[in-house]
Amino acid sequence: MTRHAVAFSLAACLFAPSAFAAEPAHPFAHVRAAIQDLVVTGVIPSMSVAVTKDGRIIWEEGFGLADVAKKIPATPNTLYSMASISKPITATGLMVLVNRGAISLDKPINDYLGPVKLTAYTGNVADATVRRVANHTSGLPLHYQFFYEDEAVRRPAFEDSIRRYGKLMAVPGQTYQYSNFGFGLIDHVIARTSKMPYEAFMEAEVFKPLGLPNIVAGRPTRFDEKQIAKRYAPTGAVIPHYDFDHMGASAVYASAHDLARFGMFYLKDHLTDQKAIFPDAVIDEMLRVSTPPGKGPNPTRYGIGWFAYDISGSAVRGHSGGMGGVSTDLSLSVDHNIAIVVLVNAQSQAPTINRIRTMIHDTLVPSAQTQRVFANDGPFPGVWRGTVESYEKKIPVTLTVGADKASVKVGSGPEQTVADLRVDDEGFLWLGSVEGDVGTADAGRYPYRLQFKLSPAGKELTGYATALSVGLNGRTGNGLSSWVKLAKN
Questions:
Q1: Using an 8 Å Cβ cutoff, are 192 and 112 in contact?
Q2: 323 and 386 in one domain?
């Protein structure tokens, strides 16, 4: 099936019902509209999202089709392949054993590997500690290897992979190098130390006590196929199931709902139906950055299974994932007690996911976005007046942009503060989710809000306002645009 055929099929389907389908004023209405546009235009087959704030899931929803051929809609409980979000999940299993004293983070990982061990081209192999393997500073190189079920080659015994690829190619502790093989070592260590298969240990010691029935390590054979999102290539073809020699790095499946609950555990929200598998001090140790400072202006920062980075000026711990038919993201804003999950069953969608994640974050923490965009002397501060020109009429618009906030008035409507406000990498000014009436019958088929995209040119802003509607009863809404021209007073 071609991408265009996928897009046609998706456009014809009903989206999964949502508690917010008839609530266009909900703060995530503009995000829903953006996701629906991605699905209807065939950019992605489906997306599942979940958002938590202060220990409560405040929004979760599936969009598009988990299985295009069978027209099975995605839901918050659909299982998606996690790709590298498997790493913080596997690291959780590791830290259960560390907390019990069965593994020491600062001992050589070779102490736990049995007869087949790492070797080194450079440096001292004893300096490749469990911690350094878990934060990608052990000296292991880049590595990923996939084994497809429609091919003859199968995953070898892991000891064979260690013999072939368990070789240090940098001095341990000296530099960061992302290595899937390292987390393959960690799942191997979990199995050897616990005397249980990795998959069984994770189920018994992590997923069950944390109340996560829709997270599984390895192929999710106990689930009905209708519960699992197919993995799609850019052509729209289903990618055959595949395996790896780094299960702990890549092999987990999870639903958006359960992954959000996993995130809440790391935010220390202490849900009543979750058992504390280790104390909060262990969480602090995992989230603490332990990679070297690095030489560049933006060195990678990593703890035990978790990246450290910023979203719109807010400090975040998280992890993304990407491989064939998979693009995923889990971010935890520790300062604001927010977890955001975005899962897609298509590859190479990191920019799309980052955009949606940032839109969600900036809806909940608007001050960070406003300061980031307007704490400067750019072209936008000032009072701008003009019109939205639909095919029926012209409606007056006044946009006021200050140093740290903005407001807009459309027609006879109220003046309203703009929360979703940003400048993109190409210099366009975006205003999202504001009240306004463009005065046309087709826009008015469903309740809608306006999103503006404006370009500066001297003392003018020109562009368009899009009436973004959320269809009722799970149907896809519309995005209808009208010309905007404003002049600076």
A1: yes
A2: no
Residues 178 and 107 in one domain: yes
Q: Are 447 and 353 in contact (CB under 8 A)?
A: no
Ordered strands of the 394-401 beta sheet: 416-417, 406-410, 394-401, 382-389, 479-488, 460-469, 448-457, 429-434, 420-423
SS3 content of the chain, % helix, strand, coil (to 5): 30, 30, 40
DSSP secondary structure letter of residue 169: -
DSSP 37: H
Angle made by CA atoms 85, 86, 89, in degrees to the nearest 5: 100
Return the CATH number at 124. 3.40.710.10
Domain that holds residue 454: 374-488
148 and 231 co-located in one domain: yes
Amino acid at 7: A
User: How far apart, in whole angstroms, are the C-alpha atoms of residue 278 and residue 275?
Assistant: 9
Phi and psi dihedrals of 404, rounded to 5?
Answer: -135, 10
Q: Say if residue 431 is in the same domain as residue 295.
A: no
pLDDT tens for the chain, 489 residues long, are: 344 343 434 333 333 333 333 344 567 888 998 999 899 889 999 999 999 999 999 999 999 999 999 999 999 999 999 999 999 999 999 999 999 999 999 999 999 999 999 999 999 999 999 999 999 999 998 888 878 888 777 888 889 899 888 999 899 998 898 999 999 999 999 999 999 999 999 999 999 999 999 999 999 999 999 999 999 988 898 988 888 888 999 999 999 999 999 999 999 999 999 999 999 999 999 999 999 987 667 788 999 999 999 887 788 999 999 998 999 999 999 999 999 999 999 988 999 999 999 999 999 986 544 444 443 457 888 899 999 998 889 999 999 988 767 899 999 988 998 877 777 656 778 887 788 998 888 788 768 888 888 888 888 998 888 887 654 443 434 667 788 899 998
Domain count, the chain: 2
